[in-house]
From TrEMBL:
Domain DAHP synthetase I/KDSA stretches: 12-258
EC number per UniProt: 2.5.1.54
GO molecular function: 3-deoxy-7-phosphoheptulonate synthase activity
Keyword set, alphabetical order: Transferase
Name of this protein: 3-deoxy-7-phosphoheptulonate synthase
Keyword Transferase listed: yes
Gene name for this UniProt entry: aroF
Range of the intact protein held here: 71 to 333 of 333
């Protein structure tokens, strides 16, 4: 079902007011984690002003350490919904397990299944049964074929609304947090009809690399980008080092739109 052989035309995923994969570059931006109402509203209004079409923000966070901030939970989802009402941007947020999937689905437009859950087959089946638009992130040690097989789990339940996200893979390189595998974008475009977005924030781990890799991602055919932006990256509870300030996000928006226009 994910294969282009049996479905030659590109899939377009429709959310509340935004379509992904229909020939416009969809910019998704926002904090790694929802931290407070003030933080989220400030970031949402500013990324909107700078041209973002969707708001990202984690309410349930998959943290390496159990002692790190785990996210605001339902409170965070309520704030995302409020930010949508204020800015008009549909929102994307992660569902981390089967127990919270339906709750996340009630509040958000695009449900993220994170890299660590790419092969959580029970969660993928539940995502498929929900019929809700799903943002499926590539596992950090998944091949493209395994990635597409995970999408297949969602599609096989009758849910065609899957957006794929390249977010970097583990390699021997340690300077960057992950190695952003941009060749995966044209590879997936050959093999599959599903829309593909790129996450240069988790893909590099360093804010200085986010703009150059965003430019490259758009040049190789990404349908959108998902970028972490924060009002005070140095104070962020998670992923501050890879989060852009507003002025840098503005510059990124200008350059990627120019590249998109001539691609
Ligand atoms: C995220 O988007 O905040 C996130 C945790 O992403 P990933 O699953 O790609 O690590
Ligand atoms: Mn993050």
């Amino acid at each position: 079902l994910a294969s282009r052989d049996f479905h030659p035309e590109d899939t377009v995923v429709k959310l509340d007011g935004v379509t992904i994969g229909n020939g416009s570059l969809v910019m998704m931006a926002g904090p790694c984690a929802v931290e407070s109402e003030d933080q989220l509203m400030d970031i949402a209004c500013n990324v909107r002003r700078l041209g973002a079409r969707m708001l990202r923000g984690g309410a349930f966070k998959p943290r390496t350490s159990p002692y790190s901030f785990q996210g605001m939970g339902e409170e965070g989802l309520k704030l995302l919904k409020k930010a949508k009402e204020v800015t008009g941007m549909p929102v994307v947020s992660e569902a981390m397990d089967q127990a919270n999937f339906d709750m996340v689905a009630e509040y958000v437009d695009l449900i993220q299944i994170g890299a660590r859950n790419m092969q959580n087959f029970a969660l993928l089946k539940q995502a498929g049964k929900s019929g809700k638009p799903i943002l499926l992130k590539r596992g950090m040690s998944a091949t493209v074929e395994e990635f597409l097989m995970s999408a297949e789990y969602v599609l096989a339940q009758g849910n065609p609304n899957v957006v794929l996200c390249e977010r970097g893979i583990r390699t021997f390189e340690t300077y960057t947090r992950n190695t952003l595998d941009l060749s995966a974008v044209p590879v997936i475009k050959e093999l599959s009809h599903l829309p593909v977005v790129v996450d240069p924030s988790h893909g590099t781990g360093k804010w200085t690399l986010v703009e150059p890799m965003s430019k490259a991602a758009v040049a190789v055919g990404a349908d959108g980008l998902i970028v972490e932006v924060h009002n005070q990256p140095e104070e962020a509870v998670s992923d501050g080092a890879q989060s852009l300030k507003y002025d840098n996000f503005q510059r990124l928006m200008d350059t990627v739109q120019k590249i998109y226009a001539v691609r």
